[in-house]
Amino acid sequence: MIARTNRRWEVAVCAISLLLACLTIHAQQPPFPGIEYPRGQDVSPTFDGWERNPDGSFSLWFGYFNRNTEEEVDVPIGPENTFDLGTGDQGQPTHFYPGRRWWVFKVIVPKDWPREKRLVWTLTNRGRTNLSKGWLQPEWEADKLLISANAAADPFLMSLGRPISDAIIAGDTAPVITGGPAQTVTLPGTATLRVTVTDDGLPKLRRGDRTADGQVRGGVEGVRVRWILYRGPGKVQFDPNVSPPVYGKPITAETKVSFSAPGNYRIRAIAGDSALFSTVDIDVKVNPSASSETKAR
Known about the structure:
Number of domains: 2
Structural class: alpha+beta
CATH superfamily of the largest domain: Immunoglobulins
Strand order of the largest sheet: 9-11-16-15
Largest sheet: 4 strands, antiparallel
Shape: globular
Number of helices: 4
């Protein structure tokens, strides 16, 4: 009897050990198993949803998924980065940061746009051609709550998502951002870019919640401005790349941009109030240095 009881305990202990081992292995898996390589992977376009506009037209939102964890990928406008509408240039990016990027740009279509008509973004890179098809499928209609919730997965958009109550998000208006004029600089010169931002004061300031690991999350500090490269043939550096938060008054955010190569660049400023966001683009023409032009002659 004692031997049989001990045997049962041994079986139970083995079962529990096996279960704990399985749970440990599962816990060690990365949250996104598909993102395994720092570089060498492709970029896919995504259709994120659509909105109704006050004038009856529709906005079709697109984003992208860069499968690299570190490498930034560039695909110039042309046959490898094109839409099946107009000239193919519908304001899409040519510079793709790692990871999943939500609500990157929208294409406005007229109010008589056929419900079943697809708008196709084609992106070819790393030997693969990926398509994203946007259309007015009812299930894909987006509102401020959905935009804010999904934006929380993209650090560039500075949204807290669900920690901000649905009622506050519904009453919130995205910051209004205005950019400065286009600029021209000559290497090795830098461009100083400025934007002004106003906000409605929602969501209101709040302290974040301290988590078990000692981090503070869910706090609202005001409006921030983040700078990113949207289009361009070279690398850029921002000083700073994110402005400090400001609450309750208009702000002017400024950054100094340096460029690695001549060409035409588009710099994007993103203003976020922790719930919603807005963007503005500033074009910069970068001329080669005088010494390089002399050598070319």
